Amino acid sequence: MPIVPIVSYEDRRQIVLPTTPAEEPTRLGRIWAAILLWHQKREGRRALRGLTATELKDIGVSQSDAAREVSKSFFWD
Questions:
Q1: 62 to each of 14, 31, 45, 56, how far by Cα in Å?
Q2: Span 32-71, pLDDT tens digits
Q3: Where are the beta strands (DSSP E) in the chain?
Q4: What pLDDT is recorded for position 54?
């Protein structure tokens, strides 16, 4: 299995990625994955909404791009 370094100033751990393919997801697994994706989008947009103009500039996102992303529905987009 390949070892992939995690870039962090505080913690220099490494993770090991599995080389075997994952099992075919069940219908419930696909539904759960969709719910998790919606949740991640919602949390990401909430975090983006709370950033200042300087913080947005630091991560390379314009204020108009951030406003466009925040205005999206977490369910459909």
A1: 33, 33, 14, 6
A2: 988 898 888 888 888 889 999 999 999 899 999 999 888 8
A3: 3-5, 14-16
A4: 93
Distance of CA 35 to the CA centre of its chain: 13
Q: What token pair was written down for 46?
A: 């909430």
The CA-to-CA distance between both ends of the chain, in Å, stands at: 35
Tokens of 54: 């300087």
Tokens 């992303």: give the residue.
69
In angstroms, how far is CA 45 from the centroid of its own chain?
10
pTM comes to: 0.56
User: In angstroms, rounded to a whole number, what is the distance separating the alpha carbons of residues 61 and 53?
Assistant: 9
Q: Quick one: the chain helix, strand, coil %, rounded to 5? A: 50, 10, 45
CB-side neighbour CA atoms (13 Å) of 11: 4
